[in-house]
Amino acid sequence: MIRATSRIRFNMPRIRHLSAAAISALEKTAEAVRTEVVQAQVMPRDTGAMQGESTFIKAGESISSTYRDGAEAVNTITKAKGGRVSIITASPQVRRLYYHPEFNFKTDENPNAKGHWYEDWEEGGTHQDFAPNAFKKFYRQEVGL
Fold first, then answer.
1. CA-wise closest residue to 128 among 116, 120, 118, 137
2. Labelling 18: which of 7, 44, 66, 106 has CA 20 to 30 A away?
3. Distance separating the N- and C-terminal Cα atoms of the chain
4. Are 101 and 91 spatial neighbours (Cβ–Cβ below 8 Å)?
5. Confidence (pTM)
6. What is the DSSP track for 87-137?
């Protein structure tokens, strides 16, 4: 009978570094997709608020604090939690505009305005490879390859 033994040693600092690099690359990828959508001018636009300050990346949890004077501050932790980030547009009209592509959108501000404005970056869309390629690029940068 032959007995074999082996010893496995994990390089935990390197594993933590690779995990942190993946989180950072994911957050940068989400920001790149958001920027790409804005530059493609596919979101309906009137004042620019919807594609500007109303569209943001949410990664992690929000923490709110109330100061003595009654002012409230909300801070979102920027580390992606569970390998997920969200591109959020927090405007009252977003749901109505996004899910009704049959509307006649004004095209004087954004010439490519339409409903379902993320569909080109989803699976089957014309830019479906953008997010995976951006993630690879950012991950390689973060890892130092």
1. 120
2. 7
3. 45
4. no
5. 0.78
6. EEE--TTHHHHHT-TTS----SSSTT--SSTTGGGSTTSTTTTHHHHHHHH
If phi > 0 it is left, if psi is from -120 to 50 it is alpha, else beta; for residue 72 that is beta
Main-chain phi, psi angles of 42, to 5 degrees:
-100, -15
**Contact between residue 127 and residue 33 where contact means Cβ atoms under 8 Å apart:** no
Instruction: Locate 68 and state its tokens.
Output: 């003595």
Whether the pLDDT of residue 67 is over 70: the answer is no
Alpha-carbon distances, residue 36 vs 30, 51, 104 (angstroms): 10, 11, 23
If we measure between CA atoms, which residue out of 103, 86, 88, 91 comes closest to residue 48?
91
What are 69's two structure tokens? 């004077």
